[in-house]
Amino acid sequence: MYVPRKTLPLYIPPPLVSVKPLRQRGYTVSSKKWPAIVALCVWACASRSFAQTPEDIDREEQLARETLRGLTGVAVLVEDIAPDAERDGLSRNQLQADVERTLRQAGIHVLSDEERLHTPGNPTLSVRVGTYKAGALYGLCIEASFKQTVTLKRNPHIERPAETWKTQGVGIGGAFHLQEVRKGVIIKVGEFINAYLAVNPKARPATIRPFLQRERRLDVKREL
Fold this sequence. Notes:
With about 220 residues, the chain is an alpha+beta fold.
């Protein structure tokens, strides 16, 4: 099943944090570099104040979910991948296809460019995979955010695109683990699906097929 956001605050896939595969491939991994790489990952993804209480976070997430109510579909934009990550096998086109397929399997209509322009708010799910390469290792930041046009309350004539929902996480891995990033992206898209279905229950299908072939058929659980 898709994992609710509140139970998955940080994406660090187990295969990405193991040093053993790196050593088996002949890489020397200095323990002194790990804190710096982890700090870079956290810094790249940091957006939430550590002073927030669980109640504040729950309230913030509920308000963010409400901005998804009534959506009839979303466009998908996967941002450009760093050249070194692309050379090591991380494909923007593949990620775009993965995200669109996962949304359709969950019963969410994926808007074409023309449909987006004619849909109120130009709703767009944006996916960003930030990478920082340090020797044999990559620091990773996976982010999924929903953007739409909003109006200024004191002047409704002013409209601006704004980010109204967001999730993110960090990880560490070697170049040969970059394909694992696809799974992390699907997890983050799953969090968006949970949020969408929580406020649009009529759009919920009975079951969906997972993108990951090793897993069995999944039920989409509504996030409470």
